Amino acid sequence: MKNKLLSHLISTCLVITFGFADANELPIESNVPGGVVVIPIKSKDRPKAFFYDKKVMVIGKSQNWKAIVGIPLKIELGEHKLKVVSNSAEANYLFEVVDKDYETQYLTIKNKRQVDPNKEDMLRISKERKLISKVKTNWREINNIPLRFIKPAKGPFSSSFGLRRFFNNQPRNPHSGLDIAAEKGTPIVAPAAGVVTNAGDYFFNGKTVFLDHGQGLITMYCHMEKINIKEGDSVSVNDVLGTVGSTGRVTGAHLHWSVILNNTTVEPLLFLKAN
Questions:
Q1: Of residues 129 and 112, more confidently modeled
Q2: Which residue has the higher pLDDT, 250 or 56?
Q3: Are residues 205 and 223 in contact, defined by beta-carbon separation less than 8 angstroms?
Q4: Which of 225, 72, 221, 208 is closest to 131 using CA atoms?
Q5: Where residue 122 sits, what CATH number does that domain have?
């Protein structure tokens, strides 16, 4: 069942053409928690869009704009609205969020401090959370935004996005990314062009890189063994960012890959190019 779902998500695409991008460059739509919706907007001038006060990506051209909206995992089901400001007027575009049943995963972490941090650990974690939160809100105003990605590392997908997680039988936040099982030293490449906005070593995430692809679309790479780039670097698709490792809170070597849209983690498979 899992393999069928992965194949469906990878192979499905929207047949919509607009402005500088063709249909294959749009992410797959999925109006569920952790999904993405594409909302057409009719406006002569470029509109501004907001989802619960978070700025939303807008692409396209006059009279044919698209808002690309990331849906939070913890959102309430039902009707929601996108606020659009255009030509000095404000309008609400409504869309519905339907349920999705994410599976549960139980993991055993040998380093108990990674589950129950001590006071010193918590001071570090608090500082790191503030820094990471700031990186996730970065906004770079560009037009030509890559909305389909290549796979950032070779290896099978392991832990899927959205899993309800328990570490040592203690409930934690849902899995905010997609794991790729790979041996230590496996190259990690940029799935699309972007700018490195952060490269650091964190308590939970281990060695981590953030790429900014424009208008609130950000990707994150965690648990790396080695980082080959630095903050401020511009990278092209397939440039090597570093290698797979087992740093931070892990049960073994792998790459944790997150996609962030309007400061919301969403399903990476929705952005993956079909083979």
A1: 129
A2: 56
A3: yes
A4: 208
A5: 2.70.70.10
